[in-house]
C-alpha cells in the first residue's frame, strides 16, 4: 500500500499544532489503538515539543480504508509519511505493537540519514524475542477475551454491539501484524533505546524487554513500572517526563 503526499493529513494528527516547535514526538498506537490515545501526551508536552500522533488505516475516521497486516509494510508507510516532519530533533514512542512499528521506522529513517533522538518502546518484547502467539487466528469471541484480559480497551465498547463490529476488523488485522512480526537481522540502531514495561505485563517479561539493548549502540535503559500491559494508564506522567528529559533544552 503506497502513501501519497496528499494523504499525510490522514496519518499525522497534530492535537496542539506548533510549527516552530524545537522538537517533535512521534507516537505510534498499540493494536486496535488510535491517535487519540495520545491526546494526553500532546497536552502535557505543550511548550516542549509538538506531538505527531499516527493514525493507522482501518480505524475511527479511517475505518473504511484497508488496514495493514504487516509491521514492516506499516513501517514503510509511516516512515514515508514522516519524511517532511524530520527537519528538527524527534523522538519515537510506541506502545505494544507500536513499539515494533517504531523500531522498524527507526531502522528506515536511520538508513535514510535521519537518526531519532531516542526510541521509547513500551510494553513490548525486544525484536529478537518474538513469541509464538496466535490470537489472530482464533474466532471473534477469543479475540475479544484476549483484548479484555489486557484491560486496554474501554469496556463500554464490548457492551455496544455496533461499536464492537466497528473495532473488531482493526483489532484482528493489528493482532495479525503484531503476532506475525519477525525481526530480520541487520545493523543495530544508533538511536538510544529507553524501554518501559509493567511488572505484571503478560505480554513481556523483564528479561524479554532487557534484550532491547542488543538492538542499539546508542545507549539503553529499562524502566519497570507497577502494572500490567497498560501500565501507562497509571504511569503516563512518569513516561512523558522520561520523554521530555531527552528532548533538546
TrEMBL record:
<dbReference type="Pfam" id="PF00975">
    <property type="entry name" value="Thioesterase"/>
</dbReference>
<feature type="domain" description="Thioesterase TesA-like">
    <location>
        <begin position="26"/>
        <end position="247"/>
    </location>
</feature>
<keyword id="KW-0378">Hydrolase</keyword>
<protein>
    <submittedName>
        <fullName>Oleoyl-ACP hydrolase</fullName>
    </submittedName>
</protein>
<dbReference type="GO" id="GO:0008610">
    <property type="term" value="P:lipid biosynthetic process"/>
</dbReference>
<dbReference type="InterPro" id="IPR001031">
    <property type="entry name" value="Thioesterase"/>
</dbReference>
<dbReference type="InterPro" id="IPR029058">
    <property type="entry name" value="AB_hydrolase_fold"/>
</dbReference>
<dbReference type="InterPro" id="IPR012223">
    <property type="entry name" value="TEII"/>
</dbReference>
<dbReference type="InterPro" id="IPR020802">
    <property type="entry name" value="TesA-like"/>
</dbReference>
<dbReference type="GO" id="GO:0016787">
    <property type="term" value="F:hydrolase activity"/>
</dbReference>
<comment type="similarity">
    <text>Belongs to the thioesterase family.</text>
</comment>
Amino acid at each position: 500500500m503506497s502513501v501519497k503526499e496528499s494523504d499525510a493529513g490522514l496519518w499525522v494528527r497534530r492535537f496542539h499544532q506548533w510549527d516552530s516547535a524545537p522538537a517533535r514526538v512521534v507516537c505510534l498506537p498499540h493494536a486496535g489503538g488510535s491517535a487519540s490515545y495520545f491526546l494526553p501526551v500532546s497536552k502535557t508536552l505543550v511548550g516542549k515539543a509538538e506531538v505527531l500522533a499516527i493514525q493507522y488505516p482501518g480505524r475511527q475516521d479511517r475505518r473504511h480504508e484497508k488496514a495493514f497486516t504487516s509491521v514492516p509494510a506499516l513501517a514503510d508507510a509511516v516512515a514515508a509519511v514522516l519524511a517532511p516532519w524530520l527537519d528538527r530533533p524527534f523522538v519515537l514512542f510506541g506502545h505494544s505493537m507500536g513499539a515494533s512499528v517504531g523500531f522498524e521506522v527507526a531502522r528506515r529513517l536511520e538508513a535514510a540519514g535521519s537518526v531519532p533522538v531516542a526510541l521509547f518502546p513500551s510494553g513490548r518484547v525486544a525484536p529478537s524475542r518474538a513469541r509464538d502467539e496466535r490470537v489472530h487466528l482464533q474466532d471473534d469471541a477469543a479475540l475479544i477475551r484476549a483484548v479484555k484480559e489486557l484491560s486496554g480497551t474501554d469496556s463500554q465498547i464490548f457492551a455496544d454491539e455496533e461499536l464492537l463490529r466497528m473495532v473488531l476488523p482493526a483489532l484482528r488485522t493489528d493482532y495479525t501484524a503484531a503476532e506475525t512480526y519477525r525481526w530480520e537481522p541487520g545493523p543495530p540502531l544508533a538511536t538510544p533505546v529507553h524501554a518501559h514495561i509493567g511488572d505484571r505485563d503478560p505480554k513481556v517479561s523483564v528479561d524479554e524487554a532487557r534484550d532491547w539493548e542488543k538492538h542499539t549502540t546508542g545507549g539503553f535503559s529499562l524502566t519497570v513500572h507497577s502494572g500490567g500491559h497498560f501500565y501507562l494508564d497509571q504511569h503516563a506522567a512518569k513516561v512523558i517526563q522520561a520523554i521530555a528529559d531527552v528532548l533538546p533544552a
